[in-house]
Design goal:
Strand order of the largest sheet: 2-3-8-4-7-6
Structural class: mainly beta
CATH class: Mainly Beta
Strand content: over 45%
Mean pLDDT: 81
Number of domains: 1
Radius of gyration: 14 Å
Largest sheet: 6 strands, mixed, barrel
Distance between the termini: 10 Å
CATH superfamily: Acid Proteases
CATH topology: Cathepsin D, subunit A, domain 1
């Protein structure tokens, strides 16, 4: 069983992205139950030589207080937290925190997965 980290009132998880046969481990992403979608820093793509492609979509994200920022919506091969893996998934890549303290926000990816159950998250902490 994967153990989430509970720090300063927030749930953190390490995730793994796989795209174009490249494995990208990203530590300390926030499990955000209030987020409308998942957003990961694009730096992780750049560092692994993964660029944006013609079928990627430029989108506008809205944050708390109505702040807006651009992101790229991209289909990737897979994303996983522990033993929960989703294949062929679309996620957003954009800046979550201008001070680079947050690597990503995770939500709405794992709904419908066999192991997904928000009421059971205490079992993972």
């Amino acid at each position: 069983m994967y153990r989430l980290k509970f720090i300063n009132g927030l749930l953190f998880a390490d995730i793994t992205l796989v795209h174009d046969n490249k494995i990208i481990n990203i530590s300390d992403t926030i499990i955000d139950t209030g987020a409308s979608h998942t957003v990961i820093l694009p730096d992780f793509l750049y560092q692994n030589g993964i660029g944006f492609e013609g079928n990627d979509e430029l989108v506008v994200m809205s944050g708390i207080g109505g702040a807006e920022a651009s992101a790229v919506r991209k289909r990737i091969d897979s994303i996983s937290i522990g033993n929960i893996i989703l294949n062929d998934i679309i996620i957003d890549f954009g800046v979550v925190d201008p001070k680079d303290r947050i690597n990503g926000l995770i939500f709405r990816l794992f709904e419908g997965c066999e192991d997904y159950n928000w009421s059971g998250w205490n079992d993972y902490i």
